[in-house]
Amino acid sequence: xxxxxxxxxxxxxxxxxxxxxxxxxxxxxxxxxxxxxxxxxxxxxxxxxxxxxxxxxxxxxxxxxxxxxxxxxxxxxxxxxxxxxxxxxxxxxxxxxxxxxxxxxxxxxxxxxxxxxxxxxxxxxxxxxxxxxxxxxxxxxxxxxxxxxxxxxxxxxxxxxxxxxxxxxxxxxxxxxxxxxxxxxxxxxxxxxxxxxxxxxxxxxxxxxxxxxxxxxxxxxxxxxxxxxxxxxxxxxxxxxxxxxxxxxxxxxxxxxxxxxxxxxxxxxxxxxxxxxxxxxxxxxxxxxxxxxxxxxxxxxxxxxxxxxxxxxxxxxxxxxxxxxxxxxxxxxxxxxxxxxxxxxxxxxxxxxxxxxxxxxxxxxxxxxxxxxxxxxxxxxxxxxxxxxxxxxxxxxxxxxxxxxxxxxxxxxxxxxxxxxxxxxxxxxxxxxxxxxxxxxxxxxxxxxxxxxxxxx
Length: 457
Known about the structure:
Elements: H1 8-16, H2 22-27, E1 34-38, H3 40-43, H4 55-58, E2 64-65, E3 72-75, H5 85-88, E4 92-94, H6 101-106, E5 116-119, H7 126-135, E6 140-144, H8 148-161, E7 166-169, E8 183-189, H9 204-207, H10 210-227, E9 231-241, H11 250-259, E10 263-264, E11 273-274, E12 280-283, E13 293-299, E14 318-319, H12 324-327, E15 335-340, E16 343-348, H13 352-361, E17 364-367, E18 369-375, E19 378-381, H14 383-387, E20 397-399, H15 402-409, E21 421-427, E22 430-437, E23 442-444
Parallel strand pairs: 5-6, 5-8, 6-7, 8-9, 20-21
Antiparallel strand pairs: 1-3, 1-4, 2-3, 7-17, 9-13, 10-13, 11-12, 12-13, 14-15, 15-16, 16-18, 18-19, 21-22, 22-23
């Protein structure tokens, strides 16, 4: 690995901080571990008759589980994820192991059976997909990204992950003041100075400065203060960064607890290093196989006065009562179906009013699951439906070889036996998307903006 000098002020601070120490600097010049996290609802559907696991996992000599995340594992080397069809269908996600600490935290919180969780700074979607797996189709996940272009990436990754109870929005943290006392838990993976990424992203060293650390710490305060009112009394705020300094971590947690009269939650963070004030914990690359990561949890006082949510006004949504055309493609039990600009959406019936509230108050990017577009008397099925194993109910399928699957993902067409009409394309029994077979050829309906652009030969 080619070393690039650390910023001198960062290096001196780490060497002079007995909590961090010179061993941390040495580890930041080593090779980064490679890790992935499986989608439990999809992995169990894989056809194991020929290949037991996704390509990236099967080709390793061995693999090591990530102890703090049930679905996480390390890989011995970084494969070309683009050339594994199951990566495109949401069977697994390439995620840094330290950020999977969130799984250990969520499993210790006293949450309702159907909690409403906000992932405030969610793109590209690693933590959101982890939360979606934790919820396991219960509750509601709202994933927010303030930068519009990144919100589209977040939408793509959550569509591929395939859960029915996720909404993606594109809002500033202050906008959440319009929906007070709504969430049972809020995850704030705050924008930070990125010291924990100095190994994985060498160029991040050039962007570091003490001034930026101070700017990040101030911005993190603003973000948490802006969103605090939308947390229910007794609810949890999970705060994390990928940096090592006190200003952005312990100092902020201490400041939040005083300013907001919030309790620091005592959790089991093993095998990670407890922070300087025994509030949270660090994943440190000289101690565990991770990049740098920090996490702590605050609980809002249950004595907080309840604030009223705005009333849901007349919506532009039209409820669909005749489900005959929908039932050809989708399960219907447990969902209500609405059309919006001729697009049909499935909403979990338990949270219809809450989701309508977000349509009213926020900028929607992903509205639960898009079933398809109304075309006269039929529905043109959407890719999101193909990705959602909890909703899809369609038996006309065509199984592809790996070579065919990669051609399909590139947007190509090729000779393919099958019945006329819509067909669900699968690989190892996992849906990849739709085609419309028209006899001698087929129309490839895989989304153009998501197609593979590299050579696959």
